[in-house]
Amino acid sequence: MLFQSIRSGYERLLECVVIGLMAAIAIVVLLGIGFRTAGAALVWYDEVASILLAWLTYYGAALAALKRAHIGFPGLVKAMAPAWRKLAVLAAEAIVIGFFALVAWVGWVVVEILEGDRLVSLPWMPQQLVQSVIPVGAVLFILAQLLSMPDVWRQAVAAPGRSDTATE
Questions:
Q1: What pLDDT digit, counting tens, does each position of 1-56 carry?
Q2: Whole-angstrom Cα distance, residue 168 to residue 152?
Q3: Are 44 and 117 in contact (CB under 8 A)?
Q4: Which of 64-73, 107-116, 159-168 is predicted least confidently?
Q5: DSSP code string of 58-88
Q6: CA–CA separation, 142 vs 67, rounded Å?
Q7: Taking a C-beta distance cutoff of 8 angstroms, is the pair 133, 55 a contact?
Q8: CA–CA distance, 33 with 152 (Å, rounded to integer)
Q9: Are 1 and 151 in contact (CB under 8 A)?
Q10: Residue 158 vs residues 2, 69, 164: alpha-carbon distances, Å
Q11: Lower Cβ count inside 10 Å, N or C end of the chain?
Q12: Is the Cβ–Cβ distance between 133 and 141 less than 8 Å?
């Protein structure tokens, strides 16, 4: 099934990016500790570690959205009548996607405003690149919501008490 392979590929891609960012932040922190211990603190350490943490947060949120690992109320939705369940799922998806579309748009506006600005400790690094994680992360989150939506919809229309893997 093409849709499932796209979803799996997207999940693997996000996992690789998140693992890479985790490794990068670990290396930067260890370098910062090592250099500070040796009495030669790195001037860029704090800024880069903060940026990596922000990037890890956005990419990790997209991965969590794909796995539907965010805070939710699946028990409440399951307890609803089928018509209300469908409505609740559609409303929740619309709200989440709408919110992240707004975040992407505002993030893009911020990126445009930052044209020409550079990091303080690494003047060769453009602020636009650093802050691009906001619109990019929001779009990745929307894509994750859309790719995981069929499973959520299937669960919403399933009869109460029916398992997710049950066949008809």
A1: 888 999 999 999 999 999 999 999 999 999 999 999 999 989 999 999 999 999 99
A2: 18
A3: no
A4: 159-168
A5: HHHHHHHHHTT-SS--HHHHHHS-HHHHHHH
A6: 13
A7: yes
A8: 44
A9: no
A10: 23, 20, 8
A11: C
A12: no
